[in-house]
Amino acid sequence: MIRTSHQLDFSAAPKTEAPLFLHEAAQWQADLPPGPFVRIEQGIFAIEPSTMQVACYSGQWQRWPLALHDALPVADLALGATCDGHLVMAFMDARQNHFRWLKHLGRASRNSRAPIYISRSEDNGRSWSAPTLIQTGYSGAVRSLVTLPNGRLVLASQYLLPKEGRYVSLTHVSDDGGLSWQASNWLDAGGQGHHDGAIEGYLLPLQDGRLWYLLRTNWDHFWYAFSQDDGTTWTETALGLQASSSPGALLRLEDGRILLAYNPVGDHPPRRGVPFSQRLASWYREKLVLRLSEDDGKSWCDPVTVAYCPGAWLSYPHLFEPTPGRIWLTTMQSGLRLELNVEELFNG
Fold it and tell me: What is the longest distance spanned by two Cα atoms in the chain?
């Protein structure tokens, strides 16, 4: 690890004066958008919620205003593309977001809300359709949208059960390019707390035809769910890799291997219980690691630490492969903006 002088962004994470250490194979890329990223024929696209801009890469980054109907302020988002090259964005409207936790009842207020909307662009991000509401209530996170080989769009989502005081996860699927959506069954991990349940999932199609849902929990492990029908229903679940209570990110590389980014549990992690979680959950986020799988997630290489900063939250990652073997790694919390070479990282 190499000590660097790069400044982290603490607008969405606790501030620390500690130094940032990066893996020798990591190069800081200050111009990278926060992600997520999606590729169509015209280039690589991202949306920057803080500046309400579209960012497009085709050799260099170009940016222009996000021409969204009624200029809705976007809070958290997932970005995808249809088979015919149209962009699809799922997001929360920041103006409507409201959350109140009733400590004496152990649940959210009934007027807590963070609905999810869909908007589409058919002109390479220059203009966007009027947003369509697809989920009411309080969601709290929008992180992953995938396009399956058959053209179906699948959006990872979550929903806060106000009375029970926990989240369940689900997916929304579209077979008409994002014009209409159908919700799946719920994935309920139990618990009670304003960060409890199965939350902030990431989707990845597997080579055997199943769809994999990587879910954050407060169990010191990921929870895996699998769908045999392209996200319409979720019928298989399994306990996954050890991990802190923070979301992971998955990426299928051009060579077929799977890359996973996440925060490990930590040796003596800070833990949070009520009202965050029914059990004491690891809140260790000062280290971000990557792992590779050559057998579709059945086994993994040893974790490689990409970034480390004592006391920081290096979390909520996104991964993208702009060219074979070259990776962009960004985080929402603390604002990492890194470029990596896979072979140098794991074999250097």
Answer: 55
| pLDDT confidence of residue 348 | 72
101 by Cβ neighbours in 10 Å (0-12 / 13-18 / 19+) ranks as middle
Q: For residues 172-178, give the mean pLDDT.
A: 97
24 lies in the same domain as 74 = no
Q: Which two tokens stand for residue 227?
A: 């769908």
CB 122 within 8 Å of CB 97: no
CA distance 333 to 266: 18
The DSSP secondary structure of 161-173, one letter per residue, reads: ETTTTEEEEEEEE
Rg (CA), the chain: 19
Q: Which of 217, 242, 267 is the last residue of a domain?
A: 242
- Count of domains observed in the chain: 2
Provide the 10 A C-beta neighbour count for residue 161: 17
Please give the Cα distance from 338 to 137 (Å, whole number).
Answer: 35
Q: What would the pLDDT profile of 267-325 be if each residue is shown by its tens digit? A: 999 999 999 999 999 999 999 999 999 999 999 999 999 999 999 999 999 999 999 99
**SS3 of residue 87 by DSSP:** strand
The 10s digit of each residue's pLDDT in 215-274 is 999 999 999 999 999 999 999 999 999 999 999 999 999 999 999 999 999 999 999 999
DSSP structural state of residue 51: T
**147 within 8 A of 81, measured Cβ to Cβ:** yes
Q: Which two tokens stand for residue 213?
A: 């849902």
User: So what's the pLDDT on residue 125?
Assistant: 95
Give me the CATH number covering residue 94. Answer: 2.120.10.10
Distance CA 193, CA 217 (A): 12
DSSP string, 261-293: EE----SS--EE-TTT-SS-EE---SEEEEEEE
Check: CB of residue 112 under 8 Å from CB of residue 162: yes
Which runs of E-coded beta strand occur in 122-220? Answer: 132-135, 145-147, 153-161, 166-174, 182-183, 199-205, 211-216
